[in-house]
Amino acid sequence: MSPLEYDYTIIGAGPAGMAAAITASEHGLRV
């Protein structure tokens, strides 16, 4: 099993966390 790699980690699943994940993803980051 290979380790998972992310560019950005979101802590929290509320509206702000979801907005951060969407924005980061739109900018090409692996969330």
UniProtKB/TrEMBL annotation:
The keyword 4Fe-4S does not apply. GO terms for molecular function: oxidoreductase activity. Residues 8-31 form the FAD-dependent oxidoreductase 2 FAD-binding domain. The keyword Thylakoid does not apply. Keywords: Flavoprotein, Oxidoreductase. InterPro entries: FAD-dep_OxRdtase_2_FAD-bd, FAD/NAD-bd_sf. This is FAD-dependent oxidoreductase 2 FAD-binding domain-containing protein. It comes from marine metagenome.
